[in-house]
Write a structure and sequence with these properties.
globular; transcription; alpha+beta; Probable transcriptional regulatory protein UC7_00291; Arc Repressor Mutant, subunit A; Alpha-Beta Plaits; cytoplasm; DNA binding; four-stranded antiparallel β-sheet; 44% helix
Length: 241
């Protein structure tokens, strides 16, 4: 993963996400509902629920919203159901795109995702067409401005915690883990006193595709249209933005 920095993409899109905070909360509520419905309302015994609750807190989602989604999943007679669907496709310059959705209407979501692709310079592919280009990883970011730790010391700490890799820039330490080790590494680093700026399970592209300015603008428009869909929860690309 040398040379791949998720942090730049995370920071670059923060303002856009702030502007769409209400819709983000709505999507997170759906994810919390699904996790609690499947594995129970206690995050201590439901790892999936704990992960999405952490994700919600990182997005500054109010605790009342989180609690309401959990209570809804726990309500007697609650019959709301969502399907988890993955769409795969291509953007400008052949950039690989993965789209994760939670939907109560597969036909509606499939139509909306297809339209977003075709009207914004992309094309929807078949199942398996691009997913092999990504690896599921745990991702943790720690801002260096908060630390007096050098790269060698941090590398020792993350390896001891069970991480796979460390990427370093002037701004941030980026730590990658196997999916099954993510919570262990995250908890170990927090126990050691580190403040985590970002911690999530994500999809990391094996190869990055470089785009010119026009292609980047077109891809960003495609991503924005996909993320505007109520049923779309996450979008990953292989673009080097």
């Amino acid at each position: 993963m040398a040379g791949h920095s998720k942090w730049k993409n995370i920071q670059g899109r923060k303002n856009a996400q702030d502007a769409k905070r209400g819709k983000i909360f709505q999507k997170l509520s759906r994810e919390i509902y699904m996790a609690a419905k499947a594995g129970g309302a206690d995050p201590a015994t439901n790892a999936a629920l704990r992960l999405v609750m952490d994700k919600a807190k990182a997005a500054n989602m109010p605790n009342d919203n989180i609690d309401r989604a959990i209570k809804k999943a726990s309500s007697a007679g609650e019959n709301e159901h969502y399907d988890e669907i993955t769409y795969e496709g291509y953007g400008p310059a052949g950039v690989a795109i993965l789209v994760y959705a939670l939907t109560d209407n597969r036909n509606r979501t499939a139509t909306n995702v297809r339209v977003a692709f075709t009207r914004n310079g992309g094309s929807l592919g078949e199942t398996g067409s691009v997913s092999y280009m990504f690896d599921r990883k745990g991702y943790i970011a720690i801002e260096r401005s908060r630390l007096s730790v050098d790269e060698d010391t941090m590398f020792e700490h993350v390896l001891e915690a069970g991480a796979d890799d460390l990427e370093t820039s002037d701004e941030v330490f980026e730590i990658y883990t196997a999916p099954e080790e993510f919570t262990t590494v995250r908890d170990a680093l927090e126990k050691d006193g580190y403040t985590l700026a970002q911690a999530e399970l994500t999809m990391v592209p094996q190869t990055l595709v470089e785009l010119d300015a026009d292609q980047q603008e077109q891809l960003q428009m495609l991503i924005d249209k996909l993320e505007e869909e109520d049923d779309v929860s996450e979008v990953f690309t292989s673009a080097d933005l």
